Amino acid sequence: MRAVILAGGFGSRLSEETDRTPKPMVEIGGKPVLWHIMKIYSAHNINDFVVCLGYKAYLIKEYFNNYFLHTADVTLDLSERKMEVHKNRAEPWRITLIDTGLETNTAGRLKRVTGYLDNETFCMTYGDGVGDVDITASIAFHRRHGKLATVTAIQPPGRFGVLNVQDTQVTRFGEKVDSKGSSINGGFFVLEPGVLNYIDGDSIAWEREPMERLAVDGQLMAYQHHGFWQPMDTLRDRRLLEDLWARGEAPWCIWK
After folding, report:
1. Which of 32, 50, 103, 189 has the fewest CB within 10 Å, making it most exposed?
2. CA 71, CA 91: separation in Å to the nearest integer?
3. Per residue, what are the HEC states of 17-76?
4. 3-state class of 9 per DSSP?
5. SS (H, E, C) 182-233
6. pTM for the complete prediction?
7. Comparing 151-165, 205-219, 222-236, which segment has the lowest mean pLDDT?
8. What is the pLDDT of residue 179?
9. pLDDT tens-digit profile of 154-164?
């Protein structure tokens, strides 16, 4: 299966970092948060990625173009223009990096990579949130219910879009209202190609019309996640994640 990662936004709420780098490239423990997300998927044997780029896209392209050098121990002989590789720790990833536009919204980015999805079931998530989500179980759940879309539902504090869930079916999606005691959109979607028909153009936000219409049509189901989940929206969020990693207590690090 393939995973689409939305990595093109401006990350304005984390401007202390994103003035110089796209938010998915902001580091936790010396590695971009995008790398952490890919490692989560890879732990569930998903190693084929389509990354939707936008803001400072070239920095993400350069990182993965030089990934071999980032992850290997080498001796560089500058006079001979040679490089000797001593140890290579590269992951078994296939990564398609697509520039989906600077101003394109979240659903628009997904629509723009339609041709890379091979008309098959795929995963999709945001390039700034980590968690110990059981992706394998969410895919199995998705296969069982047979609807077009599965969202991972979480129960953290406010500031997120609320999911009204009845017997695992999402009956209504409301963006950014008081979410106390409610499930919220945690990303880590499993989707059928049919969801692309709910996206009308570049300006469409996935969290608005497509999710709302899928819910109204009875095509959006919720996989309940009760473990760790944390977005990296602000500097405070980044410091929290960095501290967990530094203490060796990062719950999303399921690949060790």
Report:
1. 103
2. 9
3. HHCCCCHHHCEECCEEHHHHHHHHHHCCCCCEEEEEECCCHHHHHHHHHCHHHHCEEEEE
4. coil
5. CEEECCCEEECHHHHHHCCCCCCCCCCHHHHHHHHCCCEEEEECCCCEEECC
6. 0.88
7. 151-165
8. 46
9. 986 555 566 77
